[in-house]
């Protein structure tokens, strides 16, 4: 992993075998990020995406073990109970152009990834909403 702070934007290069979610958590700790916007792209394998089931208040996970293009990674970094909290979504495509997507739970880099964390002033906290079961922004 390579990172560089470019006037409040952390440019990140992840290499083969590194895991996106764990790497972003590490970067948020390293730079003491309390709020950030996340964007990226790359190539991944052994990915898990999820959809939230409101009736059960839990995520339903879908493993995607094949090599996929990460055509879009977007999300936010915030804090919940003082810990880094990432909310990431991904759109992925296979060699036939079929798209997969959802909440990104994990993804290992298959070739490389280029990710940008735009640091926001201040800190965004999260609190669990009892009605939905989701961890929502809470200032």
Plain-language structure description:
It is a single chain. By secondary structure, the chain is mainly β. It has one domain (2-138): 60s Ribosomal Protein L30, Chain: A (2-Layer Sandwich). It has one helix and nine strands. It has one helix spanning 20-30, and strands at residues 2-6, 9-15, 36-53, 58-64, 68-80, 83-93, 99-119, 125-128, 135-138. Strands 1, 2, 3, 4, 5, 6 and 7 form a seven-stranded antiparallel beta sheet that branches. A two-stranded antiparallel sheet has the order 8-9. Strand 8 and strand 9 (135-138) form a beta hairpin. The longest helix has 11 residues, at 20-30. It is flat and about 45 Å long. The model has no long low-confidence stretch (mean pLDDT 97).
Oligomer: single chain
* Mass-distribution shape: flat
Radius of gyration: 15 Å
Number of strands: 9
List unreliable stretches of 5+ residues.
none
N-to-C CA distance = 32 Å
DSSP helix fraction: under 10%
In what range is the share of β-strand residues? over 45%
Mean pLDDT equals 97
Q: What's the number of domains? A: 1
Proper CATH architecture: 2-Layer Sandwich
Structural class assignment: mainly beta
Main beta sheet: strand number and arrangement?
A: 7 strands, antiparallel
CATH top level? Answer: Alpha Beta
Could you name the CATH topology?
A: 60s Ribosomal Protein L30, Chain: A
Number of discrete helical segments: 1
Written as H for each helix and E for each strand, in order along the chain, the element string is: EEHEEEEEEE
